Amino acid sequence: MGEARLLLVTDPRPDLADRVRAAVRGGVDAVQLRDKHASREDLLRLAEELREVCEGAGALFTVNDDVELARLSRAHGVHLGQEDGPLAGAREALGPDAVVGRSVGSAEEAVEAVREGADYLGVGTIYATPTKPEEEADGPALLGEVADLGLVVPWFAIGGITLETAREAAAAGAYGFAVVRAVLDADDPASAARELRSILDASSRP
């Protein structure tokens, strides 16, 4: 995952590839494909297209939850939730150079994920979000708890990160942001990405 700090998580929309292309131009340095409803054929086609977009911009491309799709599309890695099985199984399927991320909702889960070999973490749901309406928000205090761990892997505040909440999240200690609508719903995704990057760059934690 390197020095990535701005992760774009996708949602289904017809102009997704164009918006991702603009986002990586604006400073998104990692993209995660998340689509729970598309057919396997459509997902594979989209994954391959987004991988090419990311590789052309020097950004990382991962797939949410689906190790087999990551393998078939030659994604750079996969992101797994708490219920998605051991990281070692994903790494065995994708190879030793694959990037494997884990969702965590507490400092304890963060420590365990790093111990298990996670290359990066998604931390939260920090704020309430329509993307996952069933999830109770953890609040920005969780970011400070995770920041105090001094983790050796990148980690991203996720859940309701917008241009309005990003400064509070950064001040609370977020290493990076994982965003959906803040970039994809913007009239100018590149400009939205640049603004989020500027907030991160101005924060006290590198």
Automatic annotation (TrEMBL):
<comment type="function">
    <text>Condenses 4-methyl-5-(beta-hydroxyethyl)thiazole monophosphate (THZ-P) and 2-methyl-4-amino-5-hydroxymethyl pyrimidine pyrophosphate (HMP-PP) to form thiamine monophosphate (TMP).</text>
</comment>
<feature type="binding site">
    <location>
        <begin position="129"/>
        <end position="131"/>
    </location>
    <ligand>
        <name>2-[(2R,5Z)-2-carboxy-4-methylthiazol-5(2H)-ylidene]ethyl phosphate</name>
    </ligand>
</feature>
<comment type="pathway">
    <text>Cofactor biosynthesis; thiamine diphosphate biosynthesis; thiamine phosphate from 4-amino-2-methyl-5-diphosphomethylpyrimidine and 4-methyl-5-(2-phosphoethyl)-thiazole: step 1/1.</text>
</comment>
<keyword id="KW-0808">Transferase</keyword>
<feature type="binding site">
    <location>
        <position position="84"/>
    </location>
    <ligand>
        <name>Mg(2+)</name>
    </ligand>
</feature>
<keyword id="KW-0479">Metal-binding</keyword>
<feature type="binding site">
    <location>
        <begin position="32"/>
        <end position="36"/>
    </location>
    <ligand>
        <name>4-amino-2-methyl-5-(diphosphooxymethyl)pyrimidine</name>
    </ligand>
</feature>
<dbReference type="InterPro" id="IPR013785">
    <property type="entry name" value="Aldolase_TIM"/>
</dbReference>
<feature type="binding site">
    <location>
        <position position="103"/>
    </location>
    <ligand>
        <name>4-amino-2-methyl-5-(diphosphooxymethyl)pyrimidine</name>
    </ligand>
</feature>
<dbReference type="InterPro" id="IPR036206">
    <property type="entry name" value="ThiamineP_synth_sf"/>
</dbReference>
<feature type="binding site">
    <location>
        <position position="64"/>
    </location>
    <ligand>
        <name>4-amino-2-methyl-5-(diphosphooxymethyl)pyrimidine</name>
    </ligand>
</feature>
<keyword id="KW-0460">Magnesium</keyword>
<feature type="binding site">
    <location>
        <position position="160"/>
    </location>
    <ligand>
        <name>2-[(2R,5Z)-2-carboxy-4-methylthiazol-5(2H)-ylidene]ethyl phosphate</name>
    </ligand>
</feature>
<dbReference type="GO" id="GO:0009228">
    <property type="term" value="P:thiamine biosynthetic process"/>
</dbReference>
<dbReference type="GO" id="GO:0009229">
    <property type="term" value="P:thiamine diphosphate biosynthetic process"/>
</dbReference>
<dbReference type="Pfam" id="PF02581">
    <property type="entry name" value="TMP-TENI"/>
</dbReference>
<dbReference type="GO" id="GO:0005737">
    <property type="term" value="C:cytoplasm"/>
</dbReference>
<dbReference type="GO" id="GO:0004789">
    <property type="term" value="F:thiamine-phosphate diphosphorylase activity"/>
</dbReference>
<protein>
    <recommendedName>
        <fullName>Thiamine-phosphate synthase</fullName>
        <ecNumber>2.5.1.3</ecNumber>
    </recommendedName>
</protein>
<keyword id="KW-0784">Thiamine biosynthesis</keyword>
<comment type="similarity">
    <text>Belongs to the thiamine-phosphate synthase family.</text>
</comment>
<dbReference type="InterPro" id="IPR034291">
    <property type="entry name" value="TMP_synthase"/>
</dbReference>
<feature type="domain" description="Thiamine phosphate synthase/TenI">
    <location>
        <begin position="6"/>
        <end position="183"/>
    </location>
</feature>
<dbReference type="InterPro" id="IPR022998">
    <property type="entry name" value="ThiamineP_synth_TenI"/>
</dbReference>
<feature type="binding site">
    <location>
        <position position="65"/>
    </location>
    <ligand>
        <name>Mg(2+)</name>
    </ligand>
</feature>
<feature type="binding site">
    <location>
        <position position="132"/>
    </location>
    <ligand>
        <name>4-amino-2-methyl-5-(diphosphooxymethyl)pyrimidine</name>
    </ligand>
</feature>
<dbReference type="GO" id="GO:0000287">
    <property type="term" value="F:magnesium ion binding"/>
</dbReference>
